[in-house]
Specification:
CATH topology of chain B: MetI-like fold
CATH architecture of chain B: Orthogonal Bundle
Number of domains of chain A: 2
Radius of gyration of chain A: 21 Å
Shape of chain B: elongated
CATH architecture of the largest domain in chain A: 3-Layer(aba) Sandwich
Largest interface: A-B, 42 and 33 residues
Number of helices of chain B: 13
Largest sheet of chain B: none
Structural class of chain A: alpha/beta
CATH topology of the largest domain in chain A: Rossmann fold
Helix content of chain A: 25-40%
Number of strands of chain B: 0
Shape of chain A: globular
Helix content of chain B: over 70%
CATH superfamily of the largest domain in chain A: P-loop containing nucleotide triphosphate hydrolases
Distance between the termini of chain B: 22 Å
CATH class of the largest domain in chain A: Alpha Beta
Number of domains of chain B: 1
CATH superfamily of chain B: MetI-like
Oligomer: heterodimer
Order of helices and strands of chain A: EEEHEEHEHHHHHEHEHEEHHEEH
Radius of gyration of chain B: 24 Å
Distance between the termini of chain A: 50 Å
């Protein structure tokens, strides 16, 4: 097995005042060394929870109730606090969504960078300083040495996310999990940050799990894409295949709901109707049924499993979308 | 936020001086009330430190000849604030009294802060200990503070040390509660999660990430507590629970000793009272100024 990370049947639940939230329901996937994997889904579908669960930093109310997450042969789920702490930041690092709040406002950028390095590497003062400055320089912060003495509020959002990337890469991790790294940023800066991330990941040979709701981001960066809905993976495959021939109605809906710059002004957006399901009940049928245009009777009675649909693509659906539907509707859309 | 806005904001922020404390300092010195408070407190501390140089007489030296004609002669050229019922120079006693008030304030607030910060941080960060610690604090808060201070002094025996301990103890639940709330407010912040994701150990996160963010309301409360401590000490002194050596020039004790002469020599009771009021006001002004200066909502503004 040469996978870097292999997640099997990961199940996470939250115990809340209103009941048990089934946040992640038995998802399985793997990441090869140096691979870039995209996980796509709407807010609340369990993307971020998956990331936090893998890092072992779930909020107190949440717990992994089943499953395995083998990282280089070690199961992250059963590792102790101490061992997990040694892996966090050193082998697996994480980049968070909102750079405005992910940096401590009262500590200098340099202090926070040094802390990330110190947590795992034993360097003396001079080396530490040099390494921190070097990291800042590599993420494209001009005048890195001087800016180490600055505080986060003296940096713009894009700059702060660069700092977060520098912190994530501080100990040359083997895997970086980026949880919506560009969602909080301006569109023009988003592209810069993604470029930077792509370039650094390639240089370092780091594997990357990119969690996002932005299909454009995934299409441009990832080899493989997993589409997540209500705590389950509903479709997986290579990015090219998945975006050309979506088989799961939800993937199709996501693709159709992206506003297009070349669409006519009068053309309506095509949102996915309805709401994501209530996660308080254990899923016993396809969670997408109430919103699905392709539903059949069986969909409301049984839970579909991920099945191979050819070309390395899997979809969990009893009545998958015909492979060329997206192409047809897209062309039709342009004609209208 | 557009790119232009971000840039504008960045420029504006780069104009700022940097860290929390220097920024707070900057705002503090632009607040006239806080400056007045600082001047009062600075004067008070200077008087306390240099008391032997400033006082014209020994505060314990009795001159019974001066009160031969009854108590008590008012201000004169030799005794600018008059003499008390034992013929001691009132001015020197008030000057030396500043030492005791300062000592009581600092020691008792330090006692309260030490335990309060420790217990509050533990209760706020280590959840299993939250309830046990806070229930004990609730019990302490249920007893009126001054009453508890009297009880503690009664238990330990009257004296300066007991007064300081008692006032320190009644401050502990106040600081604990405040620190706990402040820690809880910071605990679930993204930067804490980010620090955990980097592999920083829990205790380090508490000490170097959460504490600096959570401590400012406690500092404000500590400054205000200095004022209350001085009042409480004067109160305990007035009740005769303060320093037992009658010669000790403690402001509260001075009030008690002269209460009998309120009609013939009211200045003897008024002067220590005025001293207490001025010093307490100074600390309150600084405390309020600090509160405003450290308000996170005002950060980044001039």
């Amino acid at each position: 097995m040469n996978e870097l990370l292999q997640v099997e049947d990961l199940t996470v639940r939250f115990w809340t005042r209103r009941g048990i939230v089934h946040a992640v329901n038995g998802i399985s996937f793997s990441v090869a060394p140096q691979e870039t994997l995209g996980i796509v889904g709407e807010s609340g579908c369990g993307k971020s929870v998956t990331a936090l669960a893998l890092m072992g930093i779930l909020p107190r109310a949440g717990r992994i109730v089943a499953g395995k997450a083998l990282f280089e042969g070690r199961d992250l789920v059963t590792l102790g606090d101490r061992e997990l702490r040694d892996i966090r930041g050193k082998d697996i690092a994480m980049i968070f969504q909102d750079p405005m709040t992910s940096l401590n406002p009262v500590l200098t950028i340099g202090k926070q960078l040094r802390e990330a390095i110190e947590a795992h590497l034993d360097l003396d003062g001079g080396q530490l300083e040099r390494r921190a400055a070097d990291l800042l320089d590599r993420v494209g912060i001009p005048n890195a040495k001087a800016r180490m003495r600055d505080y986060p509020h003296q940096f713009s959002g894009g700059m702060r996310q660069r700092v977060m990337i520098a912190i994530a890469l501080a100990c040359e991790p083997k895997l970086v999990i980026a949880d919506e790294p560009t969602t909080a940023l301006d569109v023009t800066i988003q592209a810069q940050i993604l470029d930077l991330l792509r370039q650094l990941v390639a240089e370092e040979g780091t594997a990357l799990i990119l969690i996002t709701h932005d299909l454009g981001v995934v299409a441009g960066m990832c080899e493989h894409v997993h589409v997540m809905y209500a705590g389950t993976l509903v479709e997986t495959g290579s990015a090219d295949q998945l975006f050309a021939h979506p088989r799961h109605p939800y993937t199709l809906g996501l693709l159709q709901s992206v506003p297009r710059l070349d669409a006519g002004r009068r053309q309506m957006l095509q949102p996915i109707e309805g709401q994501p399901p209530n996660m308080l009940t254990e899923p016993i049928a396809c969670p997408y049924v109430p919103r699905c245009q392709y539903r059949r009777e069986i969909c409301g009675q049984q839970l579909p499993l991920l099945e191979d649909r050819g070309h390395g693509q899997c979809a969990a659906c009893f009545n998958p979308v015909p492979p060329d539907t997206w192409k047809r509707t897209r062309l039709g859309g342009e004609a209208a | 936020m557009s790119v232009a806005e971000i840039e504008a904001r960045e420029i504006q922020m780069e104009g700022g001086s940097g860290d929390l404390w220097s920024e707070a300092m900057y705002r503090l010195i632009r607040n006239p009330a806080a400056v007045v408070g600082a001047l009062i407190v600075a004067t008070f501390i200077a008087v306390a430190i240099f008391a032997p140089l400033l006082a014209p007489y020994d505060p314990r030296e009795q001159n019974l000849d001066l009160i031969a004609e009854g108590c008590c002669p008012g201000p004169s050229r030799d005794y600018p604030l008059g003499v008390d019922d034992l013929g001691r120079d009132e001015l020197s006693r008030i000057i030396y009294g500043a030492r005791f008030s300062l000592l009581i304030g600092i020691v008792s607030v330090s006692v309260g802060l030490t335990f309060g910060l420790l217990l509050g941080s533990i209760a706020g960060y280590f959840r299993p200990l939250d309830s046990p610690i806070m229930r004990v604090m609730d019990v302490m808060l249920a007893i009126p503070g001054f009453l508890m201070a009297i009880g503690i002094v009664a238990l330990l025996g009257p004296g300066l040390g007991s007064v300081m301990i008692a006032i320190g103890v009644i401050n502990v639940p106040i600081f604990t509660r405040l620190m706990r709330g402040s820690i809880i407010g910071q605990r679930d912040n993204d930067y804490v999660l980010a620090a955990r994701a980097v592999g920083v150990p829990g205790r380090r996160i508490l000490a170097s990430h959460i504490m600096p963010n959570a401590i400012s309301p406690v500092i404000v409360a500590g400054t205000l507590a200095l004022a209350t401590a001085i009042i409480d000490a004067a109160g305990l002194g007035f009740l005769g629970l303060g320093p037992q050596d009658p010669a000790t020039p403690e402001w509260g004790t001075m009030l008690t000793d002269t209460v009998r002469y309120l009609q013939s020599a009211p200045f003897l009771a008024i002067l220590p009272g005025v001293a207490i009021v001025i010093v307490v006001m100074g600390f309150n002004l600084i405390g309020d100024g600090l509160r405003e200066a450290l308000d996170p909502k005002l950060r980044g503004r001039a």
